[in-house]
Each structure stands twice: as structure tokens, then as C-alpha cells.
Please model this.
Amino acid sequence: MAHQKGIELVDVEVGARIRERRKFLGLSQTNLAERIGVTFQQVQKYEKGANRVGSSRLHQIASVLRVEPAALFGQFVEGQEVGSQEVAALAQMMGSSEGLAFNRAFAKISDVATRRSILALVKVIASSSEPTES
Model:
């Protein structure tokens, strides 16, 4: 289904995932552009979904971002299909400096039990932050 001026939702979603992963790795648009042989303006267009990413370019981008090309489509995360609600939550988190810092720090924790404990704590905090219905 086309949006404004032929921009497809899938192009916007792929672009958003490219941006999220690039920012997570601490790469600038210029860094990514240099590594894939395009201008930073072209990377901007990919990330906004204004220009489609061809299959060979997508493969290059995925290689630089150290993910499988399918991950940029959001098809699979640890073997599970990702829905638009999860994509929106990820985009919100990765769009903030706190979210990026949290994600980077969390990824460095190698102990699974510690990671699970932190996740449980964050879930408790998040649930206590939700408005209660009266």
C-alpha cells in the first residue's frame, strides 16, 4: 500500500531499522555512507524511506551493521516475527539518548541471570508507571 508520493511502508520501516542499528553501533550517516560507497544524503533518504534500498545495497548495509539482511525487514528477532507494536517500541527507545545508552550497557552484560533480573526490575518499574483505571 503506497503512502505519499510512492513511499511504501516497508521502505520506511527498513529505513527506520537501518537508522536504529546504525545509531546503536555509534556510526554516523557519513560513516555508513563511506563504507557502502554512497553519499550521506543517500543514507538519509534510505533511512527516511524516500529511496528504496536495492537488494545488493541492503546486503552491504547489513554487513556493515553486522546483522542479517532479514533483520532490517524486521522479520525475525530470535526466531519470532516482529509486529508493528514492537517496532514502534524499539523506535521510541532507540530514538532517545537514554534508550541508546541503556541498550549499549545492557548488551555488555554477559551473565544471563543478571540480564533477566534487570529485565524483571524494568518491567516492575514500567508497570508501576502505567496509569491505573478507576
Remarks:
- DSSP finds eight helices and no strands in the chain.
